[in-house]
Design a protein that fits this description.
By secondary structure, this protein is mostly helical. It has a 3-stranded antiparallel sheet, sandwiched between helices. The longest helix is centred in the N-terminal third of the chain and has 23 residues. The structure holds manganese (II) ion.
Length: 213
Amino acid sequence: MHYKFELIPLPYAYGALEPHIDEKTMRLHHDAHLKTYVDNLNGTLSPHPELYGWTLEQLICYAGFLPEGIRMAVEHNAGGVYNHNFFFENMSPEKSGDNLTAPQSKLLSKINYTYGGLETLKKLFKTEALAVFGSGYTWLTADAEGNLKLLSTANQETPIKQNLRPILCIDVWEHGYYLKHYNKRADYIDDWFNVINWENAKKNYDEKNKALK
Ligand code: MN
């Protein structure tokens, strides 16, 4: 994926995550918030044909090579597109948690090995996501050796810059939950646990050897 970037449709209906995440939030989050990042990224890149072949990941990871005048705008908006695409793709109306317990799931084995079980991971994930001050994301990631790492990023920063491969993430910007959950981020996180696309998370983990950039 490179310039001209497109607004990727949600892989499910806007209301598909109800009652956990409401339709109005999903419409605004996708059609307004994500669209703005896509439009601003295209607008920033448009006078720079030399960057038209750069992928989203390259724009993020090699931001240091961008012209200084557009560096911040590209980083912010490319991060916004990358993070939102990842976040939306990693939710699903299907309860796919059962799939994680299949014996062939390397991810579950690693979760058990690292955290002692899925429930403990969820607890740690929630604590981490609650601790994000202001706007940002909380991620489960894997390093090059496949070791799992939980971390949060501020604003539209991404873990791929730190050579960590995202497995799943939650967007804890208030626009992601305020209409339904008001200021109760803890309730939003609990609801989000019900719509995690574990099938995707498993795939993200199994693609261990795939290059990030
Ligand atoms: Mn968002």
